[in-house]
Write a structure and sequence with these properties.
This protein has helices spanning about 20-30, 45-60, 80-90, 120-125, 125-135, 150-165, 175-185, 190-200, 235; strands spanning about 10-15, 70-75, 100, 170-175, 210-215, 225-230. The chain is α/β, with parallel strands linked by helices. The protein has a 6-stranded mixed β-sheet, with helices on both faces. The protein is globular.
Length: about 250
C-alpha cells in the first residue's frame, strides 16, 4: 500500500516570546495580570527567543539537504511565524521550502482568562478554578476559550491535510506548547491520563524538537515512530539558554 504519512515530522515550540518574559515577571511578583499590551497573536520573540531560533536553524541547516524539512507549516501567531522564518532561511538549497501559515496550529484560546496569572485566575474567577480542578484541564473550557480537547479536534484536520498533501515529505511544524502536546496525543494514540502525566512532568522547552520518522515495519502499513522528545541539544551546542516558560496564563497543574 502507498505510504500516506510524511517521512519525517518535526514538532517545534516557538522561541521564547516577550509574553513568556512578562508572564515570568508577573508570576514572580505574585501579580494578578501579565503586563503586555499586544494581542496574544501579535506577541513577538524576545531577543533570547531570536537566539534560540537561530540555534535551531543552525541544527537543521547542518543536516544533509535530503534530510532537511521541505515543508514548513506554522501557527499564525507572530512568535511562531518568526521562529519558522528564521529556521526556513537557514535551510540549504536553491529552492527554500515555502513557510505556510495554518490557523489550526494557533495557540489554545484562553477566553476570559487571557493575560491572567495563576493567582489572578484564582482571585478573580474562583468558581472557574474549582470547575477546572473538578473537570480536569483536558476537558475544561473557559468562557470564550478552548479546552485541550478542542485543540485536539482541530489538529485532527491538520493531520488529514498532511496525509493528503505531504505523504513522503519532511514536514516541520512550528507551534505552541499545547499544540505539541496535542499532536503527541494524536500521533502516539495516547489517552487523557497519559498526556496529562507528560504535561505534569515538565513544560515543553522553547525551540525544542519532538520528532517522528516513518517506520514501514510498524503496524499494517507502517506508521510514524517517536524519535525525539523535547530535544534541546541544538540550543545546548550553541550555548543558548534553555527556557520552559508557559505561553499563556493557566491554572496550576492538576
Amino acid at each position: 500500500m502507498e505510504q500516506k504519512w510524511p517521512q519525517e515530522i518535526w514538532l517545534v515550540r516557538h522561541g521564547q516570546s516577550a509574553g513568556n518574559v512578562a508572564r515570568d515577571a508577573a508570576e514572580a511578583a505574585n501579580g494578578l495580570t501579565i503586563d503586555i499590551a499586544q494581542r496574544d497573536v501579535d506577541v513577538p520573540l524576545s531577543p533570547l527567543g531570536v537566539r534560540q531560533s537561530q540555534a535551531l536553524a543552525s541544527w537543521f541547516a547542518a543536516l544533509p539537504p535530503d534530510e532537511q524539512p521541505n515543508v514548513v507549516l506554522h501557527s499564525p501567531y507572530l512568535r511562531a511565524a518568526e521562529t519558522a522564518r528564521i529556521v526556513t532561511l537557514g535551510l540549504a538549497g536553491d529552492s527554500l521550502p515555502a513557510s505556510q501559515v495554518d490557523e489550526r496550529l494557533r495557540e489554545k484560546e484562553f477566553g476570559i482568562l487571557d493575560r491572567l496569572t495563576s493567582h489572578g485566575i484564582s482571585q478573580r474567577y474562583p468558581e472557574l478554578s474549582e470547575q477546572r480542578r473538578h473537570v480536569g484541564k483536558f476537558y475544561f473550557r473557559p468562557p470564550g476559550g478552548e479546552s485541550w480537547c478542542d485543540v485536539v479536534l482541530r489538529l485532527r484536520s491538520v493531520l488529514d491535510t498532511i496525509t493528503r498533501e505531504y505523504a513522503r515529505e519532511r514536514v516541520l511544524i512550528v507551534g505552541h506548547q499545547v499544540t505539541v502536546n496535542c499532536f503527541r496525543y494524536l500521533l502516539e494514540r495516547l489517552d487523557e491520563a497519559t498526556i496529562l502525566e507528560y504535561d505534569r512532568s515538565g513544560d515543553v522547552p522553547n525551540c525544542s524538537i519532538t520528532s517522528y520518522s516513518f517506520d514501514p515495519q510498524q503496524g499494517k502499513h507502517g506508521k510514524l515512530a517517536l524519535k525525539l522528545v523535547s530535544f534541546v541539544a541544538p540550543l545546548e551546542a550553541a550555548g543558548t539558554p534553555i527556557t520552559v516558560s508557559k505561553d499563556v496564563p493557566a491554572a496550576p497543574k492538576a
